[in-house]
Design brief:
CATH architecture: Sandwich
CATH class: Mainly Beta
Largest sheet: 7 strands, antiparallel
Radius of gyration: 17 Å
Number of helices: 6
Helix content: 10-25%
CATH topology: Jelly Rolls
Structural class: alpha+beta
Distance between the termini: 36 Å
Length: 274
């Protein structure tokens, strides 16, 4: 059992995130990386750019991470025993690639209300300052902040959504070893820099684990029931994959990603690459 301690919970409530949490072995993280790279080899460009979403629907290795009991125990500590999975994202930064994530808040554009949800960021490779680890602005989760939509080159976010004037002297780097994760609040301001190392930096992000009382206000998300019961039935429930890159799972993933695009670009004047 890996429920968060009272001290960890207080830290999450005060700071807006908790890190690191041990969830996978080195071998489990490596096997997940190998499966991602196998998919990239067999289906070139399929999981690039806007294709990075919901890869767990075609990958049994990533699916097993989503439903990992250590992760779910920690999540339950924050949002309660009834847990739904509402999409995932791969954040892959290749060596010396000019990819970054501007400072932003997840809750701004994702449409999940109320904010009884949490994002799990699982490191499948080491994530550190050199290769562009996440950076958090502690205590910034108390309210929603203004964002500029920049659609800027190299920005891995849909709209290049950016919170300006983030105080760098207060920002904390979230360094993780492969197999560790962080949990962060929907409203915390966070971002990450370029990968200046010789290896890929791969983060698998369950965005997000939601309580069953959470609605999608900008469109439609299907969910998996990860733990407990869904007595609200706000979302269509979809099955877990049991085969790598099956035709059925590929079609399901496309449908879910189309729904996500509608949510992420709701009201936008233009569309980005992600």
């Amino acid at each position: 059992m890996t429920y968060l301690s009272s001290n960890q919970l207080k830290l999450y409530e005060d700071q807006g995130y908790i890190s690191p949490i041990e969830v996978l072995s080195n071998d489990e993280a490596l096997e997940a990386r190998k499966e991602i790279e196998f998919i990239e080899q067999k289906m070139p460009n399929e999981i690039d750019n806007a294709g990075r979403y919901n890869v767990h629907l075609i990958s049994p290795k990533l699916d097993s991470i989503v439903h990992n009991s250590k992760i779910l125990d920690a999540v339950e500590s924050i949002i309660g025993k009834n847990i739904l999975v509402c999409s995932t994202t791969l954040f892959i930064k290749n060596p010396y690639e000019q990819g970054f994530v501007s400072y932003h808040q997840d809750a701004k554009y994702i449409g999940l209300e109320p904010h009884n949800w949490v994002t799990a960021w699982v490191a499948l490779t080491d994530s550190n300052k050199k290769n562009g680890c996440m950076k958090m602005w502690p205590k910034s989760h108390l309210n929603i902040k203004d964002h500029n939509e920049k659609f800027n080159e190299g920005n891995l976010l849909t709209r290049g959504q950016t919170v300006e004037n983030v105080p760098e002297d207060k920002v904390k780097s979230i360094e993780l070893k492969a197999g560790q994760m962080s949990l962060h609040h929907p409203r915390i301001v966070h971002g990450s820099g370029n990968n200046k190392s010789d290896d890929r930096r791969i983060g698998f992000v369950i965005q997000s684990y939601i309580g069953t009382n959470v609605k999608q206000t900008l469109g439609k998300n299907s969910v998996q029931v990860a733990r407990g019961e869904d007595n609200y039935h706000y979302h269509e429930v979809i099955h877990r994959t049991n085969a790598l890159m099956s035709e059925e799972s590929i079609l399901l993933r496309k449908k879910e990603n189309d729904h996500l695009q509608e949510i992420f670009y709701k009201g936008a004047k233009q569309k980005g690459s992600y």
